[in-house]
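Re: [help] complex structure
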Amino acid sequence: MNPLELARSRPGEAFTVTFDDRPVPAVPGQTVAAVLWAAGVTAWRSTRGAGRPRGVFCGIGVCFDCLVTVNGRPNQRACLVPVRPGDAIRTQEGTGHDDD
Amino acid sequence: MTERAHLAVVGAGPAGLAGALAAADRGVRVTLVDAAEQAGGQFYRQPARALGARRPEALHHQWRTWRRLREGIERHIAAGRITHLTDHHVWAVQRASDSSFTVYALRGPAEEEGATVRADAVLLATGGYERVLPFPGWTLPGVVTAGGAQAMLKGALVLPGRRVVVAGTGPLLLPVATGLAAAGARVAALVESAAPVALLRGAPALAAEPGKLAEGAWYAGQLMRHRIRTLSRHSVVEAHGTDRLTAVTVAALRNDGRIRPGSARRISCDTLAVGHGMLPHTDLAETLGCTLSGPTGTAVRVDDEQRTDVPGVWAAGETTGIGGAALALAEGHIAGRSIAARLRGVAPDPRSWAASARARARLRRFFAALEAAYAPPAGWADRLTDDTVVCRCEEVTAGAVRTAARSLGAGDLRTVKLFTRAGMGWCQGRMCAPAVAGLTGCPLTAGRRPFARPVPLGVLAALPDD
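Output below.
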């Protein structure tokens, strides 16, 4: 059993996005975090101070731990942002801007 | 021609939907403003439409109630009485000198574009979020909030991992553990710090809710069915792993909340779903100047009609105190009826909502008893090692927070923040405030944030001057 089977989900046609240049499968309606979780990825940010890995924590957009860079735009909450075909998702280092 | 009175409802969960329905049924024009793609809030969070779920009810409880709510809202939307603004993240509500209101929101997941809604009255149904108390290793990827694991399952139909430990305290842990198991995760253990006997102490209030007893029995059956081992009076004392979670250590708790020596054992897992109860979302109410009260001083205070002490502002659901979906429905319904009458300039007749008022009284008693039973274990703060990160955003350790309180004399959360930056980051202390309060002995006071979420400067600059 998996969640898609449990809810008898019939998503639209699958597509590919990239995570740090590696192709990752996705289906319409998934968030960035869901795509990465489904691919077994749990971390996509390193903190500004200690450079520690982070991923989803609250899952509802409150904690900002799951910040990620999507198509060059840093500080996107992976748990809220839906994926689109061809999205380039990148691990966010620190602030996500080249200023540190 | 005068325009019909207009109500803005912030939040499309059970409280907001019940309020919108009750008001629209009585001729009020309603704009429902909500951050999600679809109505439902956290309790009735729906799978994204594009996922094409043909059986979303498999992830839910009380589906019939949801269908009734949804059909009512859809009927009003079709008739033009309710406007539903989805993907609108409200960052402030302002009361003008003429007693009208402006609701400010950011649109879409990008949150770069502003939107405003004008209204004659506001119903705040902003819900709650999870409290998670820190422990060594809690910042490791793979450690998620219990509610977060559930939200990702309901909304995105995805599991956080394969082998999950569900831990903490509170009634949310049961649906999270059984829900994850039903969706295919292996739930290695359900670790609850409360003792079954603590629930018995609240027995009179708890037994007054036969529906809730049946719910409890149903969950017990589900735990057996999925062979989930329940460790009550236990706590996760540490999460292990270098760059991601690989195991947790759990230990038995003595009656005084301390660890039973020699009871620690390791459980391997790739996910820990952890939570210690809920906290109300009160930012918008605070900006409006609503008084907060409740047992922890962090819930919006309302009267019998669900009115806050700011004229024209009502509140219902978790924002007025944590009490679950059924209580939110009752409060929302009462608020909607009160609003419909007050906007016509007449006093409502409380007899017209007597059944909802009875349910409200009963459920508030029930959740007060539950809250006492599910209090976090005493001594959790003492178990925090000095190097444990408490503020996840600013990476402030327990040691730094202790120093601020003990050596530097900080006596409130704001001063701790100024000394250490704990609570100054992206989440604005929503995640760490309960922990900082517990560590320092400072009261858990509301944050007083002018913005309920980060707002791009461009959106502020584009606001009209009025």
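Chain B touches chain A through 54 residues (CB under 8 Å).
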